[in-house]
From TrEMBL:
Pfam families: Sdh_cyt. Its cofactor is heme. It is a multi-pass membrane protein. Keywords: Electron transport, Heme, Iron, Membrane, Metal-binding, Transmembrane, Transmembrane helix, Transport, Tricarboxylic acid cycle. The lineage of its organism: Bacteria, Pseudomonadati, Pseudomonadota, Alphaproteobacteria, Rhodobacterales. One of its GO terms (molecular function) is heme binding. GO terms for biological process: tricarboxylic acid cycle. The chain crosses the membrane at residues 23-47, 59-79, 99-119. Part of an enzyme complex containing four subunits: a flavoprotein, an iron-sulfur protein, plus two membrane-anchoring proteins, SdhC and SdhD. NCBIfam families: succ_dehyd_anc (TIGR02968). Membrane-anchoring subunit of succinate dehydrogenase (SDH). It is found in: Membrane. It comes from Rhodobacter viridis. This is Succinate dehydrogenase hydrophobic membrane anchor subunit.
């Protein structure tokens, strides 16, 4: 005979079934972004005002490139999940589904564009350094 307490029956049976997981993801990504974004602003700010070759060389280095990739990945994921919650609270029906798809698509497109730009800068840096 299996005995289930009320608590065991209720675990995972919330309105969405994943509220705690979502809460922890948003909390963890917020903390990560609290450290990543100021560091990124400092790294990005040091590249402002340079020539194209200097900026490419700056972002082709490992630390600025990895930091930019992390800020983009964590930031866009945080944006998509946060926007999904807002849309689920304030819209309904097909409009909700369409807007959630649009927000996730936008976050993936932005992430892909930034990662492509970083890869291209790294490649250009290699080409420019081999030409010199």
């Amino acid at each position: 005979m299996r005995y289930l307490t009320d608590r065991k029956r209720a675990v995972g049976k919330g309105a969405s079934g994943s509220g705690t997981e979502h809460y922890w993801w948003m909390t963890m990504s917020s903390v990560a972004l609290a450290f990543l974004v100021p560091t990124f602003i400092f790294v990005f700010g040091s590249a402002i005002g340079g020539t194209q070759e200097e900026v490419i060389a700056h972002f082709a280095r490992p630390f600025p490139a990895i930091l930019t990739g992390l800020v983009t990945l964590v930031g866009m994921r945080h944006f998509a999940k946060g926007a999904q919650v807002m849309l689920e609270d304030y819209t309904q029906g097909s409009l909700r589904k369409g807007l959630v798809i649009l927000v996730y698509s936008l976050s993936y497109v932005i992430t892909a564009l930034v990662l492509y730009a970083l890869a291209k800068m790294t490649f250009l840096s290699i080409v420019l350094n081999s030409a010199n």
